[in-house]
Specification:
This protein is an alpha/beta fold and about 325 residues long. It is about 40% helix and about 15% strand. The chain has 14 helices and 10 strands.
């Protein structure tokens, strides 16, 4: 039987593993990854996954995509399943599908992709034919049947695009549907979609210094029984700028945060309504560190307030 230690050795990250703190290595080898249920079905998903925007999609456009194969393998070999992508992330969706297929991992991944044929920043109506064609391309690129999740990207023309993915779900080709937004000004549209459609998931921005979603969006998700994927838990690059020159506080050891990445991810994952956090990365070592946040302890409410106060005291980016 393949053990967790075998998986770690096989991840082509032996150097990265030896650099990990002993406590995190112990958690990988002996612990169970923390999961959360999808409210509609009870299906359990690991609380940390992989996003494919930002640097991931940049590398996906390069001539050498081999680091991304290592990232995907690191995710899966260490207990993760959720991979979030989108047709609008340049060719990230296509590259992910190909690399997972070549590595024999397609069926082990929970695939979350999106649909949006409306130009970004535009108020144009979506072309239903183009939207259906985009969804069909996602099926072909990813290759999993049924596909796990498609969401309306950036709440773009929800009245046109949501019924289209509902049709795919009703036909048994799609397991879950949802809608996403990472912009506070779009939250009223997101809230309306959560109330007006039988959605299973939302994707939303949330971070220790960006807590707006906790005021209305997350409580509404809990009320409506909607799973939550969290995007940009690092505030894109904002949080990294704010902690420059700062060491992770010693008290973070109380909930097992061995790095700033784990500090930020554990804060978000500790919210009881969050199903999975999907930070983007193109580096296997960063993926390994990120997935480490899904092991061990999560901060309780008192500790989360302490984390907020600490970050709030830092200079703004």
């Amino acid at each position: 039987m393949l053990t967790r230690r075998d998986c770690l050795k096989n991840s082509a990250l032996i150097g990265a593993m030896t650099a990990l703190p002993a406590s995190l290595l112990h958690a990988f080898e002996t612990g169970n990854i923390i999961t959360r249920p999808v409210p509609r079905t009870g299906e359990k998903l690991p609380i940390v996954g992989l996003g494919t925007s930002a640097t991931f999609r940049t590398v996906a456009m390069s001539d050498d995509t081999s680091p991304l194969r290592d990232v995907i393998e690191t995710l899966v070999q260490n207990g993760g399943t959720v991979l979030d992508t989108a047709p609008l992330y340049l060719n990230a969706e296509e590259v992910c599908g190909r690399l997972a297929r070549e590595a024999g991992l397609t069926e082990r991944i929970f695939w979350a992709t999106k649909v949006n044929v409306v130009p970004r920043g535009s108020n144009e109506k979506a072309d239903p034919v183009a939207a259906r064609s985009q969804v069909e391309r996602s099926f072909e690129r990813i290759g999993k049947r049924p596909l796990d999740l498609i969401q309306v990207h950036d709440v773009a023309d929800v009245p046109t695009q949501m019924p289209i993915i509902e049709e795919f779900k009703d036909a048994g080709r799609l397991r879950y549907i949802g809608v996403t937004s990472t912009r506070k000004y779009q939250y009223p549209i997101l809230e309306s979609a959560m109330r007006d459609y039988p959605i299973d998931f939302i994707g939303v921005d949330y971070a220790v210094d960006n807590r707006s979603a906790a005021a209305r969006i997350l409580p509404l998700a809990e009320e409506r029984g909607i799973a939550v994927l969290v995007y940009v838990p690092f505030g894109r690059t904002r949080l990294w700028q704010r902690i420059r020159g700062q060491s992770v506080p010693a008290w973070a050891q109380e909930f097992g945060a061995e790095s700033w990445g784990q500090f930020f991810i554990k804060y978000v994952a500790a919210h009881p309504t969050v199903t999975c956090v999907t930070p983007a990365t193109s580096k296997p070592g960063h993926m390994l560190d990120n997935i480490g946040a899904a092991y061990g302890e999560l901060p309780d409410e008192v500790m989360r307030h302490r984390m907020e106060d600490f970050v709030d005291s830092l200079p703004s980016a």
